[in-house]
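hiii so my PI (J.) wants the whole complex modelled not just the main chain, which honestly fair. so below is everything: two entries, each one labled with what it is. i double checked the lines twice but i was tired so who knows lol
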Amino acid sequence: MRVLVVEDDRSIAEFVAAGLRQEGFAVDVADNGVDGLERCRAQPYEAAIVDVMLPRLDGLSLVAALRRSGVDTPVLFLSARHTVDDRVKGLQTGGDDYLTKPFAFAELLARVQALTRRGQRATEPTTLSIADLTLDRLTRRVERSGAPIDLRPREYALLELLMRHPGRVVSKAMIVSHVWDYSFDTGTNAVDVLVHRLRDKIDKAFEPKLLHTVRGVGYVLKVE
Amino acid sequence: MSSRWSESVRHAFAWRLGLWYAALFVASTATLALVTYLLLGRALAAQDHDVLQSMLTRYAGEYARAGLPGLRGLLEADASEGRHERLMVRVVNDQAEVVYFATPPGWTDFDLSGLDEPRRSPSPWQAIADPTGGAVLELGSVDLPYGVTVQVGRSSHVRDELLRRFRERALQVGALVVLVAAIGGLLLTTAGLRPIRELDATLRRILRTGRLDARVATLGSDDPLDQLGTLVNEMLGRLQTLVGGMHGALDNVAHDLRTPLTRFRNVAEAAIVANDPAAWKEGLARALEEADRVNATLTALMDISQAETGTMQLGYELVDVRQVTEQAVSLFADEAEDRGLTLTVEVPDGLRVEADATRLRQVLANLVENAVKYTERGGQIALIAAAAGNDVTWTIRDTGIGIAGEHLPFVWDRLYRADASRSARGLGLGLSLVKAIVEAHGGTVAVSSAPGAGSSFSFRLPATRPARRD
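here's the output for the full assembly
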């Protein structure tokens, strides 16, 4: 899977490109809007990550030009601006998603994966499992070592999110938007509380521990 | 360039106004004087004519009755009584010989030769011009029997003299009028353009000093110029709020970002000098947390500034109060449960409010978070929404530690913390954000509290979107 990163800040571009390569993506980088547009037209990409503020041609114009020439590569906008208006504008010009700087790489990855999946929408398995923990998405039944675990709806939603991305760090913002179904960005510790409760239920009485905190980034479900 | 342009326009305008005033004043005064002069001249001429006519009748009658001696006697009697009226009296007999000729003192010689000619016109009146001066001799003739003609004339020089003096005086007064007109025009321009000059001066002062607190002096009247001043003041007020908000935001950003940035730096520095991978990891994790905190602070500060300066874009929609309230509460439900707090929500069915749902949720979440944070184990938190007239009110009441009276007025201020511990969790921006967002919606906030007795935060929003002030 090939993605294009159009970002003029080299440090950010390298960080994103390196992270995506580690996840198995082939990554091209363009450091200005004109270059980005040309590459996008010359070659089909599975997704493009486009900074809004770019030299020579800004991201919004780039995507607008891309859409005019019939290229429908999914686009994830990156921007340091942080107003609803900017989001709306970004999506109106043909962007598919929007991420504000600074961002956690985990979140960027999740969004890029969502974008590249969007076309094919792989059928996810109805049963998710990691180690001896299983989650049945049809019956909403969760078991560890064969023993049923009783989860509240929000705890279930969190566990499902983590189990869909085993071994991957899931950011707090992703959890908030998945579990509470709306964006919320104060320094609330609601996520910590929820994770703590879930950990109590799925990890406390069991070995190995599955739910780990990656401080400052998010949470990950994995066997260490 | 623009200032010179406005200067010249201002002067041109002032000049035009002054000149128009002066010209109008002079012209109307001159017209008045001219009309008076003409009427006066005519009235004097009419009066002379009347006198002439009555004297002519009188003298002709006397001559007819008593002949020349009688006329002479009458004339002398009249003269001694002062009734001669500066008349020329002339009697001509049938042989065209002048039998009597009397002239008043100061008599100018008129050319009377024409009088001896037989009169052509049937009118008894004649006018003879003085070849040297401008005076006119008006003369009436009465033909008596036996070919005798009695003629009485009067020179116009007396009334000419009167009129000349009038003209002279009028010119003197005229000069005065021009002076008055000029001064009047100047005063009028000065007084009339005073508001504009003040406006000009105020704006210049602002441009020069960059201080937006200057205001144009206004009287609050219906005068258009006064209202212009009021409008300019209003505009300046808004600019000041805006600029002040931006300054405040910048100050706060500088102050509030330096602290976490310093921590950020310290953490990284401590990690890099440590020779321990665990310390590196710890440092990196803390650095990430600090970075998130900087970002959260920045976002909150921007939100507050935008809300306070009226530049926050509010996506108004009809919001289900119960839904938005429960969404906000659900963020803290787990924490409340863990801490043994009873968290109840009370919203009447079908209550709706026109507001920005995301911002309203933010307001509610901040208030609930505060209540949860400051209420001890086993406490109670009640969130009650209700319709109140055209408003919707929310009250969040807790049985928490409460706030001392001396802190109450400041709880909405940025970065104010009652416990003065800046290390406490949270940004100290929550309540200012609440206030700013509520006020941006045209609502109000209130708080009542006592130490140990819990706190009650409430806010009120108009149920329908307030009309934009324009």
